[in-house]
TrEMBL record:
<keyword id="KW-0963">Cytoplasm</keyword>
<dbReference type="InterPro" id="IPR013149">
    <property type="entry name" value="ADH-like_C"/>
</dbReference>
<keyword id="KW-0560">Oxidoreductase</keyword>
<keyword id="KW-0521">NADP</keyword>
<dbReference type="InterPro" id="IPR045010">
    <property type="entry name" value="MDR_fam"/>
</dbReference>
<dbReference type="Pfam" id="PF00107">
    <property type="entry name" value="ADH_zinc_N"/>
</dbReference>
<dbReference type="GO" id="GO:0047522">
    <property type="term" value="F:15-oxoprostaglandin 13-reductase [NAD(P)+] activity"/>
</dbReference>
<keyword id="KW-0597">Phosphoprotein</keyword>
<protein>
    <recommendedName>
        <fullName>Prostaglandin reductase 1</fullName>
        <ecNumber>1.3.1.48</ecNumber>
        <ecNumber>1.3.1.74</ecNumber>
    </recommendedName>
</protein>
<keyword id="KW-0007">Acetylation</keyword>
<feature type="domain" description="Enoyl reductase (ER)">
    <location>
        <begin position="24"/>
        <end position="340"/>
    </location>
</feature>
<keyword id="KW-0379">Hydroxylation</keyword>
<dbReference type="GO" id="GO:0006693">
    <property type="term" value="P:prostaglandin metabolic process"/>
</dbReference>
<dbReference type="GO" id="GO:0032440">
    <property type="term" value="F:2-alkenal reductase [NAD(P)H] activity"/>
</dbReference>
<dbReference type="InterPro" id="IPR036291">
    <property type="entry name" value="NAD(P)-bd_dom_sf"/>
</dbReference>
<dbReference type="InterPro" id="IPR011032">
    <property type="entry name" value="GroES-like_sf"/>
</dbReference>
<keyword id="KW-0276">Fatty acid metabolism</keyword>
Amino acid sequence: MIRRFFSNNVIKARKFMYVKDFRGEPTAANFDLVEENLPALKDGEVLAQAEYLSVDPYMRPYMMSYKAPCLMIGGQMAKIVDSKNAEFPVDSTIFGQFGWRSHTVLNPTEVQKNAFRDYYILPKYGNLPSSLGLGYLGMPGNTVYFGFLELCQPKEGETVVVTGAAGAVGTLVGQVAKLKGCRIVGFAGSDEKCKWLETELGFDKTINYKTKNLYRQLKDAAPKGIDCYFDNVGGEISSLIFSQMNDYGRISVCGAISSYNTEIPKVPAVQTAFVFKQLKMEGFLVWRYTDRWMEGIDQVAKWIQEGKVKYNETVTDGFENTPQAFIDMLNGKNFGKAVVKV
């Protein structure tokens, strides 16, 4: 399988370059697919061949801090197909923050591990697919395990609301909330997604945020008020949710998808609700929990294996289709985690 990428000891790799700054929604014009030659392995190095690439909302705002042209960022699950490092043997499955590229050469003993968990070998979890290392058994899963459980600290009988409910993070927030004995209300972008969340994942109520009378719909869905809110979108919907929270409610801020493609986002005034309801809101980056990283992955894997949590992936075939998968994900076309099968 790997032989076709070698020619006279040269490894042929493909990669997507970020060549034009985002202005509004990303388009194919923001990326350029190029080929490069990688050198033959030296002692201590490994060659990782991408199997699945991740497309995530955070990539949109993060790339604005980079100067084009540069490699498009992103995590991937890869197979080590050649190795001169005994600690990283051939056929190992590795997670790497290698960006949108087909092959990567690195020396694991020299690369500095940092808070972003640049790379690690994913343990084997029975018959679970390696792609889950980009979803429930990776950064999105730990986002929920730590960002929801540690910050919101949901208690049995409480009402939890999550926005972006049909995505990789939102689907797991809902299921973990149910495991904790909570009532879960989710916001999603279509009636089809709402029905799926209720019938397949056990959400108590869902609301299509593109419909009217959201305030009344939320009142009906959460008649006892809201105790915990996991915020993936920000904006006006979050302001509406704040207004219906109970005293001492807890809010975990994971993202602000509603403003990622907007140059000047609307910022509703929320201070009144925070003062009079004595709310607590905390933003977080999941990398703060890097020293406990495998704790979260092991727990979510156990929930899946015990049948307590279901996972869903939207898989796009073909490395060349990665930009379109990214665009589709930002437009809410995915059910669960969006990945690209290389």
